[in-house]
Amino acid sequence: MAQKKLVRFAAIETYKNVLQYPENMAGNWKDFFGNENPITLELACGKGEYSLGLGAQNTGRNYIGVDVKGNRIYVGAKKALAEDRKNVAFLRIQIGHLEAYFAPREVSEIWILFPDPFLTKSQAKNRLTHPRFLAQYEKVLQPGAVIHLKTDSRELYDFTHEVIAEQGCEIVTDYQDIYATGKATGVLAIQTHYEKLHIADNRKIYYLAFRLPENGVVVPERYLKTETRNGKQNAAGDES
Question: Between 222 and 152, whose confidence is greater?
Answer without folding.
Answer: 152
